């Protein structure tokens, strides 16, 4: 540790905290927090203290690595949440950490050359510049989540006000990331959250209700146990209970949880798989149990003080149609619809600058403008293009800079690579929105014809605008950047 302190001091950095690990069975490991110099913080995107974890074990085990990761998340100090250093006398330290760590939880082996004052800088550059935090194929949350703060706060308010909300938007627009981030942020507020992906269930005309009810019961029991809360009424139900049985058991548990200040939130993602308009008449089709299930959830909201649910997906018909599978739609004029639209320029700039900073990348204003123009602000396309640019920035410099020229030089190849993704996004819209599909085809053929039809197809036009596929300027309509990339 003294060698490391000397190396840090030579670079204008200092140790600001030292102690022992607080994790069970790892109290013999040491924890140090470092505050790097202003130049290093600016060069590598640090804004907080950075943890160094010292293990005395010559054969470093995965459980020690996990203990270090837990120490990082449980400390009360302001520490960088996604990067830490780890030292051990294990000769295979570098190999093991390269295998165990991930870009979103990067463990850097603290192996520096005592004879080379800049070896720590080289180490940081080798690991931090190798990360690509823009490239994400799965929903992001925690330290990787940026933007959408206004929508998230609105959803938090809805949970505590028992307002049922539908979150709608294009595929890969960030809906699931928003749900996961909401789930994470509510954990400390005594909210038991169940997130279910409806894409995994059968879709109408095959009735998915029994499977959904059964899985919801199982997941509720699982999450309640995590919070060490009562599960008896749900556990006593059969594995495949009826809708009414689940509703009654849930209401009993909610009454007990209310006394303890706990809430339950159910998040139903990919809701369009309950309303596939290309396969069944969702207004009068023979699937009444889907409507019955949603009606039961609505009843629980109305009869309890500590329960609500959120829907998420592409199609808003599930809250905007007056009829649902031959029954009055229980969510019509009752659930609120909000749309995840493309990122506004300011929000996108913050995302790019923050994520880029974590990789030691400074992004010039011209580059930020070019990123937004080329992607239309669509979350997936924006991150994907940013990733393509970062991959071609040099790594043998102290400060990497993304310029407008570096963005423009990637556009041709990037457009060809993402065309399949964009076509899938657009086809998904056409699959579930028949009228909107026709209007999209009209727009791509003639903006004047689209404008002429717009007054009679105002519902379809509004949905296309809400989804960010169509833009209106002074009464004229034009395709968004997303459609132009098809």
Description:
There is one protein chain. By secondary structure, this protein is an alpha/beta fold. It is built from 21 helices and 16 strands. The chain has helices spanning 2-10, 38-44, 62-74, 93-100, 119-128, 149-161, 175-186, 209-226, 232-235, 243-259, 288-303, 317-320, 345-358, 365-375, 379-390, 404-408, 411-432, 434-445, 447-453, 458-466, 481-484, and strands spanning 14-20, 30-35, 49-54, 79-87, 106-109, 165-168, 191-197, 263-269, 307-313, 323-324, 327-328, 336-339, 361-363, 400-402, 470-473, 476-479. The strands form five sheets. The protein has a five-stranded mixed sheet with strand order 1-2-3-4-5, sandwiched between helices. A five-stranded parallel sheet has the order 7-8-9-6-12, sandwiched between helices. It has a two-stranded antiparallel ribbon with strand order 10-11. It is flat and about 80 Å long. It starts with a helix and ends with a helix.
Per-chain topology:
Elements: H1 2-10, E1 14-20, E2 30-35, H2 38-44, E3 49-54, H3 62-74, E4 79-87, H4 93-100, E5 106-109, H5 119-128, H6 149-161, E6 165-168, H7 175-186, E7 191-197, H8 209-226, H9 232-235, H10 243-259, E8 263-269, H11 288-303, E9 307-313, H12 317-320, E10 323-324, E11 327-328, E12 336-339, H13 345-358, E13 361-363, H14 365-375, H15 379-390, E14 400-402, H16 404-408, H17 411-432, H18 434-445, H19 447-453, H20 458-466, E15 470-473, E16 476-479, H21 481-484
Parallel strand pairs: 3-4, 4-5, 6-9, 6-12, 7-8, 8-9, 13-14
Antiparallel strand pairs: 1-2, 2-3, 10-11, 15-16
Helix pairs in contact: 10-11, 14-15, 17-18, 18-19, 18-20
């Amino acid at each position: 540790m003294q060698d490391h302190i000397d190396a840090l001091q030579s670079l204008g950095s200092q140790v600001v905290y030292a102690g022992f690990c607080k994790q069970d069975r790892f109290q013999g490991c040491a924890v140090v927090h470092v505050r790097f110099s202003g130049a290093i913080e600016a060069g590598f995107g640090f804004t907080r203290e950075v943890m160094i974890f010292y293990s005395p074990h010559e054969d470093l085990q995965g459980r020690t690595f996990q203990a270090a990761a837990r120490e990082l998340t449980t400390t009360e100090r302001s520490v960088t949440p996604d990067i830490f250093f780890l030292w051990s006398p294990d000769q295979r330290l570098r190999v093991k950490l390269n295998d165990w760590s991930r870009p979103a939880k990067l463990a850097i082996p603290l192996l520096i050359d005592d004879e080379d004052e800049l070896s720590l800088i080289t180490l940081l550059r080798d690991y931090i510049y190798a990360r690509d935090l823009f490239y994400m194929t799965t929903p992001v949350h925690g330290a990787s989540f940026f933007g959408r703060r206004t929508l998230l706060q609105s959803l938090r308010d809805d949970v505590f006000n028992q307002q049922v909300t539908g979150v709608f938007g294009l595929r890969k627009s960030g809906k699931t990331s928003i749900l996961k981030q909401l789930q994470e942020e509510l954990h400390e507020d005594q909210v038991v959250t169940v997130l279910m992906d409806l894409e995994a269930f059968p879709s109408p005309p095959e009735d998915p209700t029994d499977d959904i009810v059964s899985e919801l019961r199982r997941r509720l029991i699982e999450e309640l146990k995590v919070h060490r809360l009562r599960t008896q009424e749900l556990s006593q139900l059969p594995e495949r209970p009826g809708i009414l049985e689940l509703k009654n058991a849930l209401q009993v548990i909610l009454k007990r949880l209310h006394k303890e200040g706990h809430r339950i939130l159910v998040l139903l993602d990919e809701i369009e798989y309950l309303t596939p308009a290309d396969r069944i008449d969702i207004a009068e089709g023979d699937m009444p149990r889907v409507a019955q299930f949603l009606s039961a959830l609505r009843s629980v909201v109305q009869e309890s003080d500590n329960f609500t649910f959120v829907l998420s997906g592409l199609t808003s018909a599930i809250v905007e149609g007056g009829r649902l599978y031959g029954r009055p739609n229980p969510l019509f004029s009752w659930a609120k619809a909000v749309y995840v639209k493309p990122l506004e320029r300011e929000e996108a700039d913050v995302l790019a600058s923050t994520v880029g900073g974590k990789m030691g990348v400074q992004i010039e204003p011209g580059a930020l403008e070019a990123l937004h123009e080329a992607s239309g602000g669509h979350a997936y396309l924006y991150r994907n293009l940013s990733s393509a640019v970062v991959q071609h920035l040099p790594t043998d410099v102290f400060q990497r800079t993304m310029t407008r020229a570096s963005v423009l030089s990637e556009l041709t190849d990037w457009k060809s690579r993402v065309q399949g993704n964009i076509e899938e996004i657009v086809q998904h819209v056409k699959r579930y929105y028949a009228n909107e599909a026709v209007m999209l085809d009209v727009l791509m053929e003639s903006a004047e014809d689209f404008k002429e039809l717009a007054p009679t197809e105002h519902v379809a036009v509004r949905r296309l605008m809400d989804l960010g596929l169509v833009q209106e300027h002074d009464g004229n309509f034009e395709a968004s950047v997303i459609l132009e990339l098809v």
